[in-house]
Amino acid sequence: MSTPSALWTARSGRDRDDGPVPVVIGCEAVVPVGTVLLVHGRNGAPDQPQIAEIAEAYLARGWRVVAPELPNSIALPASGPADRLTMDGLRRAAAEVMVWTRARWPDVPLALAGHSLGGFAIGHLAADLGDPHHVLGVSPVLSGARLLAARVAMGPPAVAALEREVPLMRAGMEAEDAAPALARVAAPLGVITGAEDGIVPLTDARAYFNTAPNGRFFGALPGQNHCPAGPDVAAMLGVALAALGA
């Protein structure tokens, strides 16, 4: 059996190489029901298993998937130095792709999905957009302060690694908070997370869900960590998307 990443890669193609942020696009439907902007997190990439799992769930329901290759990711060597990443920079790059996506397909619903820091980004983007079809966060980061607190709970080596690997992000973390934006999002929202996630603990994933005024689905998967993937995740994504009207 093919893995989700292999399936997604076979069904998608890279586009917009001439733009500031390249994107990978997949679509199997002759007439897509809508477009979802799928935003990866720190050191992410469209073909990673946790992103491919989400993409596959949307493709199966007739959606077009637009997955950007965001700057400063170790998984994307052409994206720039990973140590230059900031939460605001990731958010702004995703916003630029959202504007491009909306302009290219203006007449279909636009949904937002994001993993980890991608969840932080789409919280802001959903408020900027004003009318997303729905919002789906997977292991979503709500704020830099919560992300830092989780690192502190892991112990000094985890904090030191953060300071060494992403010094610019670490310097600005306490000021970054998606909660005020997320609280203005009227669209249906769902959250899926790994019950064993240490980077975004279960309490933080619940806080993300509870901040939104129109939470429709929350699911925590036993045995899954920060990058959930596999048959149980695929099944839960199907239920979540149904709950969100996708």
From TrEMBL:
Gene3D superfamilies: alpha/beta hydrolase (3.40.50.1820). Signal peptide: none annotated. Coiled coil: none annotated. Residues 35-138 form the AB hydrolase-1 domain. It comes from the Bacteria. InterPro entries: AB_hydrolase_1, AB_hydrolase_fold. This is AB hydrolase-1 domain-containing protein.
